Amino acid sequence: MRTFIAIDLEPGLKDTLLELVDGLKRIRAEVRWVQGQGLHLTLKFLGRTDEDKVAAVQDILDRVAQRHRRFPLVLEGTGTFPPGRAPRVLWAGVRGQPALLALQEDIERELGAEGFPPENRPYHPHLTLGRAKGPEGLREVAAELERRAGAVGGEMEVGRIVLFESLLGPGGARYRIVSEHPLS
Predict the structure, then answer these.
(1) What's the rounded Cα separation, in Å, for the pair 99 and 161?
(2) Of 53, 67, 142, 159, which residue is least crowded by CB atoms under 10 Å?
């Protein structure tokens, strides 16, 4: 199974981001836009995970979650990856609060000890809004996303981390909650 660890967003925050996406869709760019159920803040992508490793991952997430308190998650700004070149990913930003970064680092460290390879780039908290499928309209949609950066806002309390399974299909990925791990 393909798995990842994330913070699932509250419905109000998802609605805010979906309104932004709806405005960007009017540009008719070659972008595969994220659906509401796909809006989450990824903390660690595990990829192909053997069934016998899932229980170990869940145990790690239970331990990590108990070491961290609830904290606010704040939306802030927008951007594209890679920066300064033709965009492949359009995103809404998340303020990199110390509590969020400490949680992500703890997950990364604990899973590294279990044999999951570490990320080879620094963690940049963001919410993917869309992925480029082709070049048409990308400059225009990136400029509009930048223009709307100041309008992106919202906050929620993070009370749990979630282990998701990513199910790939012809209509894109669907996500299934495997387990939830409440913060202390």
Answers:
(1) 13
(2) 67
